[in-house]
Each structure stands twice: as C-alpha cells, then as structure tokens.
C-alpha cells in the first residue's frame, strides 16, 4: 500500500467513525468509535487528537470505577500525555488504571507507561524499580501464596514484579534493597515452583 493510499484509507476511516459519533444514539457504538479514532490517531503520531477522542471515555472510567467498560481509555490517555510531554498527567492515568483494573489484560502496558513516565521525569535510575515495586505492592497476596499459584493471573504479575524488582536493584548495586526485595518475595511466595533456583540466586547476591 502506498503512502497516498494509506492516507486516503485512514481519512476515510476517521470520517466513518466521526459519522458514528454524530449519528448514533447508542453509547456503545459511540464508545467503540472513540476508541478506534484514538488508536488510529496514535498510529498517525497525533497524540493531542487521540487524547481528545478518548477524553470522554476517561471521564466515564473515572466516574464508574472498577466496573467500567472504558478502563482501556486510561492507557491510551497515558501514552498520549507522555507524547505531549505531560509526565505527571501520564503517571496519573497509568496509576489510575492499575488501581481500577489490576487483573486487566493491558496491565503490562500500564506498567510500561509508568516506567516511561519515570524516565521522562529524569529519574532514570529509579524508573524500573518504581514500576516493579508498585506492581508488587498492588498485586501481592495478603496471605502467603500456595505452591504453584505464582503461575497464574494477577498473582503471577505480583511474583514476576517482585522478582524483577529484586533483580533490578541488584543490577543497580543496591544490595541491601535487593536483599529486602528477595525477602519480601519469599515471604509472599514461600514455595514457588522454582524455589531452589530463587534461593540460590538470592544467596549469590552476597558474594558478588
């Protein structure tokens, strides 16, 4: 497809979605059109237009809370805000998504946004550890997890986030903080399937 042909197809799609917004009386149809416009605007490198399209859905998500059908709008908003060099607003949107949809499919996208926000804010050293720490604190089970439970769902997100936190701190040379992260991980996950490997990895921290 040539650039001219792609541009024509995209403009036709935007016009069709705009017609849905103007003509449909169904909230679900309008919401779908807004998502499509925002995603297409993102691909075109037009973050301001993407944010404008998804703005009403962000408002709905914030108002409706965890049960909202529009939570993915927060991720689009975070990316758009970041592209517009608004890191604080981007962080707010990503954090709000994590708060309302910890088990949602795009959770990794929200975590990535949080890392990117930290980088954009100039906190390069803390970027990844901030993201993994926030994820571990949010997803970690209140009681010690059962053997094998670290392999599924939000609990898996917690385990992997805690493990990555320990490893990132280790690479940063923050031995005491890394040691504490390994301890927190094994407290919440005392019997993961890879327990032997995990304990060996932790023990080697003190010999590096």
Would you give an account of this structure?
The protein contains ten helices and no strands. Helix 2 runs antiparallel to helix 3 and helix 4 runs parallel beside helix 6.
Which structural category fits the helices and strands? mainly alpha
Individual helix count? 10
Task: Give a quick account of the main beta sheet: strands, pairing sense, barrel closure.
Answer: none
Oligomeric form: single chain
Q: Give the uncertain stretches in residue-range form.
A: none
How would you spell out the order of helices and strands?
A: HHHHHHHHHH
Range of strand content = under 5%
Overall 3D form: elongated
Intertermini distance:
54 Å
Instruction: Let me know the average pLDDT.
Output: 86
Rg over C-alpha atoms, rounded to the nearest angstrom:
21 Å
In helices, the fraction of residues equals over 70%
Number of extended strands: 0
Notable features of this structure?
208 residues, mainly alpha, 0% strand
In short:
The chain has about 210 residues and is mostly helical. The chain contains ten helices and no strands. It is about 75% helix and about 0% strand.
Topology:
Blueprint lengths: L2 H21 L3 H17 L3 H18 L7 H12 L3 H14 L6 H14 L6 H13 L13 H19 L3 H14 L6 H10 L4
Helix pairs in contact: 1-2, 2-3, 3-4, 4-5, 4-6, 5-6, 6-7, 7-8, 8-9
